[in-house]
Write a structure and sequence with these properties.
CATH class of the largest domain: Mainly Alpha
CATH topology of the largest domain: Trigger factor, domain 2
Number of helices: 12
Helix content: 40-55%
Structural class: alpha+beta
Amino acid sequence: MKNRFLALLLVGTLAFSFTACGSKEEDKAETKTEQSADTEKKSDAKPIEYDVDELVTLGDYKGLDITLDGEYEYTDKGFDEYVSKTISEAAIYVEDSSAKEIKEDSIVNVDYVGSQDGVAFDGGSAEDQLIDVGNNSSATGGGYIEGFTAGLVGHKVGEEVAYEVKFPDDYGNADLAGQTVIFTFQVNYIAKAIDSKKALTDDIVSDKFGYDTVDAYIDSLKDKYTASLENNLKSDKQTTVLNAVLNNSKVSKVPEDLLQARVDMYLNVYEKQYQSYGTTAKEYFESMGQDYDAYVESMKTSIQESTETELILEAIAKAEGIEIDEDGYKEFIQGILSSSGASDETSFYEVYDVDGYTGERYFRQAYLTQKALDFCIDNASYTGAPAVAE
């Protein structure tokens, strides 16, 4: 539920970030001029008004009895599992000196050169590459053309191996599409995965993670593990409390003009993202074989739900006399500006302006409703939420 409430805010901020970073300078100037004109036009629009007390029937929202069932307390077992998972996900491979022959499931370090008619072609050569033979891919992700690794099985470390590989007919490079070439591999070594704390060495953590010793690296993971427990507890509290609040309360209706403003805001920001790429959202969806109109309808349903959530939290804020403290809001909006790559607050708001509802009002409302949710969280009673401590 909480994710639903914040979805428009986060997606909108992300879209602005793409627009700000991806536009040419002349595009930015033109956009700014258009925004100024739009803002002037929107300033004449009557602000959307409503009485939240007429729209929302509040149920219980404070003194809630909340049961949490996650893992929030530090344990040695939990930390060991966290370390193993972190190391495994890092995809670290080192030479396995005991392995000499390539098998179907081997991870192999190679240098290779692709050539056509005896001449190496552009983009066909690389050194110090870790190849997952069985999956015909890089060991760290990314697949190869069919048959690229097929001829390596059975060969030994130190050998040079050459064989034919045919590029697919629809390959992106027209010069290579459908062509048969020769790939020559120098087998440097067979690798093994580092998947446990015991397998780490000071050299490995220095090279892969930038720590001088294994102990220093493990200490850093302990800090991250503890922080993750705290974040899990905070997130679960927010989600569970919000769900309870929403289940206890009811929204009779969402004003049509408010809902349309939310929809327009989302679509406008979304459209700006694709304009920065020289296309439109509709054109992009159609190029991907997707139904843009169906997407918009789905998006409207999501925004309807998130707006209902906002109205309930707004009603709580009103009932409890919760107001916007300017210092808190300043910190809130500065965090959003920083994450979006924006520097000017006024211009940032203008990106979100729609008829009857300004961007500044939108973000101030988001801050107020978050404060209302925090109030509910602070006034709930919890079962299954121990203090996070080692």
